[in-house]
Structure formats: structure tokens, C-alpha cells
Amino acid sequence: MIPFNKPYLTGKETFYIEDAVKTGKISGNGKYTQLCQDFFEKKYGFKKALLTTSCTDALEMCAILANIKEGDEVIIPSFTFVSTAIAFVRQGAKIVFADSCESNPNMDVAKLEALITSKTRAIVPVHYAGVACDMDKIMALAEKYNLLVIEDAAQAIDNYFISKNGEKKALGSIGHLAAFSFHETKNIIAGEGGLLAINDERFIHRAEIIWEKGTNRAEFFRGEVNKYGWVDTGSSFLPSEIIAAFLWAQIENLDAIQQKRLNLWNTYYDQLVNWSKSKNIKLIEVEPFSCNNAHMFYVVCESLEQRTALIKHLNQEGVHAVFHYISLHSSPYYNEKHDGRELVNSDAFTNRLLRLPLFYELEVEKVIQEVLKF
Ligand SMILES: *Cc1c(COP(=O)(O)O)cnc(C)c1O
User: Fold this and answer.
1) d(Cα 329, Cα 107) in Å, to the nearest integer?
2) Residue 338 within a domain
3) Of 2, 27, 152, 183, which has the maximum CB count within 10 A?
4) Where is the active site (predicted)?
5) Domain-ending residue, one of 252, 271, 299
């Protein structure tokens, strides 16, 4: 069976973990944490990067930093992972779900302004499959209504948005805050792990405190205060050095990993184009204002029945292909709290989107062979 995902190991992970263990510093915010954070800040232009134990945790930090309170409204796409919503729901926010675009699962920016009320505090765009949302338009709306933009960039590491003026900006460097994931299903991994990117300097000081259980420990270790204590809310959001050491081995191989994934993605695309047209199936399309980080390769079937048949066919031929999110507005937890608007594009992706395996060691020709037989 060809699995849907297989975590790729570069070979140096256990070497760096052993080094971290031998130096005797295995709790958080040590040498490897610094190496990783410095890398992300320099490469992508974040004002500050903080490693977290997951993207979910990074989003929770965003919700705290944004001061989200009972009754505040936060706009997120319905076609996303629960974490995008739950971080804000835990702070008491009401989620206002945005529908997807017709051509891809990202939030339909043309319909966004109609969702903004006097209670809206933040917009949370999700760069689905790593494909950029239209950040020019989202940032302009946020400025007009004085809202925060928090990018759920869980799938978007090492990808770029091309602005109207031609400027190329790293995803996660555009919103006020952004969250990335290093879960084993993402492009670079740490088992479980994440990153908070801060682009608005106002948030840096408080983020460091929230990160370390509401204490000003970071300032103390920099010698800026002579004792540290409890100064704010927070939690234990920082990962151990063991996680950071693992991630460092992945970062060292980032370019090779991305190149390999892109080759696989392009092979899928080139070899499935004619087949897809003959079946009335659509292949993933990358927006003209987005680069491609090859996080995912998906197809959109013409119906739920066709998708079910394709999944069954691939399974029988030894290929594990899977569908993805079930629209959050119809989830058992949030269905009753949703305002009842129909979100037809989100539901279409719920019913018709199918993801094909995509990982470093994938034998893509074998999958393509089986797909073409359908
Ligand atoms: C993977 C993912 C998350 C959650 O990431 P974790 O690191 O597992 O918490 C959140 N949002 C999106 C869009 C994701 O794909």
C-alpha cells in the first residue's frame, strides 16, 4: 500500500537530538530553539519568531495577544482545520464563517466585507494547500476597519505572495501575526511543533511573556530586569530543545525537500491534465498571485459519488487517497452557533475534494498509473 503520508527524515535528526541531550540543556529556549528562530526571522523577514509546541498553540497565543473577549467576532473560512476556530472560541469569540472561493478553498475575499460588523476584531485567512490568499485585499480591508489579520499559515511554510506592486512577500510575514505547523504531515516536521511569527512589533514583548507561563523570564535572562515573576496570563507554549533539535535537521534540508516536493507536484499536474479533462475533474490551481510550496496535490471531482468511487478504486489498487475537512459550520460542535448562512463552495470542497499522496519518498509514477486507470 502506498500511504497517504510518510514523514521524511533527513538523517541528522538524532544527531542533533543527541547533541542537545549531551549539552544538558533540554528544556525550551536553548541553542536549537535560537537557531531555528533566527533562521525563520532572517529567511522570511518576521520581526520575531517563537517556536511553539504546535500550530494550534501558536493560534491560541494569537487569540490571547489579540485580546479576543466574549462577544468579539472573528472571521475564518469554514473549510479549515478545527484549530483555526478553536483558538478563538476558547477566548469566547463568535466565529463568523467565510465561504470558500469557487475555484479554491481559500476564503472568498470578494464577499468578506459583507461579514464585517462593529464587533469584528480579526480576520484569519488560511492558505489552504499552501496557496496564498489575496493578502493585498485582506490587508486593505483590515486597515479600513481597523482589524487584526492572523494568518493560519500551517501549510504555507516557504511560500510567497506576489503583491500588486510586484513585491514578493513570504506567507506569514504579511498579517500582524501568523502561525505555522511542523506536524508530521507538513513540509518540514518536528513530530508535533509550530511557530508564532510576529510582524507587528507591538506584540513582541507580551508574546515572550505569554510564551513562558506569564513570566518575564526572557527579560531576566537578557539581564534587563533583576528578578522575574508572574506578570501576565500565559501558558507553557514553548517546545523542548529535543523538538527544536529535530526541526533544525529539517531546516538544514529545506531547499532539497521543497525542490523534491515541487518535482512530484509538477509530475502529477503534467500527467493528469488530460485525464482530468476527460473525467470532468479539476486539478488544484495555484492563483497567479501565489508561488507554490507543493504542500498538497488535490483534485476536485464532479460529484460526491465520483469521489467515493475514485477513493475506492485507488484503495483497491493499493493507493491511500483521502478527502479533507468537513465544513466547520456544519460540525456537531458549532452547527447550532452558526448563523445559518449557506456556504456552498465550502460544502462543495467538503464533498468533492480528494488529496493524493505527496511526500519526499513517494513513487509518484505508480500513483499516476492507478489514477489513469479510473
Ligand atoms: C495542520 C493544521 C493546523 C494544526 O497544526 P498543529 O501543528 O497540528 O496544531 C491548523 N490549521 C491548518 C490549516 C492546518 O493544516
Assistant:
1) 14
2) yes
3) 152
4) 186 (proton acceptor)
5) 252
